[in-house]
Amino acid sequence: MLEESLVLDGQTPLSLSFAPGDFLQVNAQVNQQIVARVIEWLAPQPEQKILDLFAGIGNFSLPIAAAGAKVHAVEGNPAMVARIAINAKHNELMVSGQQADLSDPGSVKQLLDEHADSDALVLDPPRSGGEAICQALARHPVAKVVYISCDPATLARDAAHLVHAGYRVKQVAVADMFLHTAHMETLVLFEADVD
Hints:
The active site is at 150, 150 (nucleophile). The chain is an alpha/beta fold. It has a single domain, classed as Rossmann fold, CATH 3.40.50. It is built from 6 helices and 9 strands; from the N terminus they run E-E-H-E-H-E-H-E-H-E-H-E-H-E-E. Strands 5-4-3-6-7-9-8 form a 7-stranded mixed beta sheet, sandwiched between helices. Strand 4, helix 3 and strand 5 (95-99) form a beta-alpha-beta unit. The model has no long low-confidence stretch (mean pLDDT 91).
């Protein structure tokens, strides 16, 4: 087992353990900036319920929980779901988690039905994007969606689904994760009226 420290301004450093083969961002400094921006946009409060989809080892889940929100982390890889639980326990945080196929519309519908009272959603999909989730959010809206993307084409496709469903783009940021290359991480904050 290996370990990485995640340090955000004003917070106690978080320790994330990981194993070879687990996904994590390669540029720790830029990752910390991305996590800080996600926290800023979400402004997590105690009693808020936030879904973290494609949660990995808890890169966003743990800092959001440390800020006080109730986090439910969902990941397709069962080993990483177990790692989220280990990381949450090690950092003395409460994060619930589950394994689910987030590319399957039926699984996504069931997940969003079960967590219909969520206040916000963090979406950090692989290059293939989060199309099933963005389509389902038309029928299961949440007030805020923070989408972190490594692929402009799938982000454009998924953003179109969200905008068509009534979400508005409120903030956009880019992060140069791979210095001296054309590859960027894009962060988008979408908001919807959920009255």
